[in-house]
UniProtKB/TrEMBL annotation:
Protein name: Transcription antitermination protein NusB
UniProt lineage: Bacteria, Pseudomonadati, Pseudomonadota, Alphaproteobacteria, Rhodobacterales
Family: Belongs to the NusB family.
Keyword Metal-binding included in the entry's annotation: no
Biological role: Involved in transcription antitermination. Required for transcription of ribosomal RNA (rRNA) genes. Binds specifically to the boxA antiterminator sequence of the ribosomal RNA (rrn) operons.
Domain annotation NusB/RsmB/TIM44: ranges: 10-144
Length: 153
């Protein structure tokens, strides 16, 4: 039995995959959400079983990422180095910033938890790269802009 924290972590991972797939394949929110809930949650790959995702959290991340995309992308752009606008970064990272941005902007999760969770997602997608540190820096900047009160000592 997976606990709620694990299910939320899985939902974040799946949200990044779903947003990536929506952008890459031009699929609708409804189609991608249905596919993930019906087929991806709990899927088994070569004896490795994917965790069961928290469906409510997954849907909220996707909905907020779509509804707040312009604001999230602008926040991401401000957090990125000027030479690297969001449309030039890796599409997996773009999806990750949108999912994390959705949770920072539109949900009650403490920003530091969001950052930690999505750095872990980055480690899953880029186990040997510098991306997790990059993700940490960008999300920290975004969170401080969106919810500065969470960082006041």
């Amino acid at each position: 039995m997976t606990d709620k924290k694990q299910m939320r972590s899985a939902a974040r991972f799946f949200a990044v995959q779903a947003l990536f797939q929506m952008e890459g394949a031009g699929q609708t929110v409804e189609r991608v959400v249905r596919e993930f809930e019906d087929h991806r949650f709990g899927e088994v790959f070569d004896d490795y079983e994917m965790a069961e995702g928290d469906s409510k959290h997954f849907r909220a991340l996707i909905d907020h990422a779509v509804n707040w995309q312009a604001r999230i992308d602008q926040m991401t752009d401000r957090a990125l180095v000027a030479k690297w606008p969001i449309d030039r970064i890796d599409p997996v990272l773009r999806a990750l910033f949108r999912a994390a941005g959705a949770e920072i902007v539109a949900m009650d999760t403490p920003p530091k938890v969001v950052i930690t969770e999505f750095v872990d997602v980055a480690k899953a997608f880029f186990p040997d790269g510098k991306e997790p540190k990059f993700v940490n820096a960008v999300l920290d900047h975004m969170a401080r802009e969106a919810k500065p009160e969470a960082f006041s000592a």
